[in-house]
């Protein structure tokens, strides 16, 4: 009986791998796992993550096993997919600090929103207080008590047309005041 060369054994295992035989996967895993981990570790300098990426690469290769015609095809795909995943991991790792900063900024903004809302509400309320009496009453009923035009007209014993006119007058008086306040805060 003629001795089997290492390359013949690998090709036989690659054939078993393509046919979905676990023995083929086991042989190739034992032959290429350590070199694959070393290759990935040389790219990302993280041995634990390198092992995870290598294992995932074997699983992805198993999924597409019918596409391969030789052991070299399998090996090339395995190392290519591992390199791609290593680069993805590196990119995600580089984005992580920015993501943490964004999360911190979002948290800070969320904490500030009630204060900002209260400051805006107070500013608008103070501006409304400077309106002429009837105009102020219309605004308070429309915007603070959330009544509609007919309800305001009924409450103040005026016509809906007068309510609309007072609302328009109030808006025209408030707009410049609120814009000037906003410009001062910039």
UniProtKB/TrEMBL annotation:
The keyword Transcription applies. Residues 29-89 form the RNA polymerase sigma-70 region domain. Residues 124-172 form the RNA polymerase sigma factor 70 region 4 type domain. Keywords: Sigma factor, Transcription, Transcription regulation. It holds the Pfam family Sigma70_r4_2. The keyword Lipid biosynthesis does not apply. NCBIfam families: sigma70-ECF (TIGR02937). Belongs to the sigma-70 factor family. ECF subfamily. This is Sigma-70 family RNA polymerase sigma factor. It comes from Terrimonas ginsenosidimutans.
